[in-house]
Amino acid sequence: MAASVVLAPGVALYGAAFGVLAAGAGLSLAEAALFSAWVHAGGAQMASMQAWADPVPLLAVVLTTLAMNSRYLLLGAALRPRYGGLPAHQIYPSLFLMGDGNWALAQREFASGRVDAAFLMGSGLPLWFAWIASTMLGQAFGSLLGQPERFGIDFLLTAFFAAMVVGFYRGSASLLPFAIGALAAVAVEQYAGGPWHILAGALAGSLAGALRPGGGNADEN
Q1: What is the pLDDT of residue 197?
Q2: Could you give the percent of the chain with pLDDT greater than 70?
Q3: Is the dihedral of CA 4, 138, 17, 48 positive or negative?
Q4: Is 112 exposed, middle or buried (0-12, 13-18, 19+ CB in 10 A)?
Q5: Within 52-99, where are the H helices?
Q6: What share of the chain is helix, strand, coil (3-state, %, to 5)?
Q7: How many Å separate Cα 115 from the centre of its chain?
Q8: Domain range list for the chain
Q9: Spatial CB neighbours of 161, under 8 Å, sequence gap ≥ 6
Q10: Average model confidence (pLDDT) for the chain?
């Protein structure tokens, strides 16, 4: 557990941001907390707030969540050599608590020769609790604000994804998927409206990244 404590402040910051957005979308404290407890996927939760409406466009939210979380297929596959022989009741709770941060910590542990299948769960629990607690704090703060957009709080979603884009930058070769995804999102938002621009941007950018010369291993410039 101690290994992941260093990641908790960053997780808490994003959790609080989600809580504020959830309050702005009309979610109660309990609803926001349960959302974070059961979904436990920061990027997908942030994106779902952009699509949130009354009634909720369920198909758009589900497809957007799938697009945002598709990377976990690869992260989970990378753990197969270490977890493949374990029973389901040990594997799936650990995978539920898997995030980008503790997955990287687990890979580092495995690479150093310390093979402990419980590491993923042990490092994930503090982050899960931090995510839920910070969501609740953010929701309470957002509720006090009344209308968060008056203070520019609704820009948190844009800021969150802008920060993610910077983190994924790998040189000039990675600019094309970003640009195509952005153009697709803007075009769909302008001509179709609704929440579909999020899904369109995610799919277009992912497809462009997969089809570009060299795929995900394009050389950096």
Answers
A1: 75
A2: 80
A3: positive
A4: exposed
A5: 58-69, 71-83, 88-96
A6: 80, 0, 20
A7: 27
A8: 2-52+70-155
A9: 43, 46, 47
A10: 80
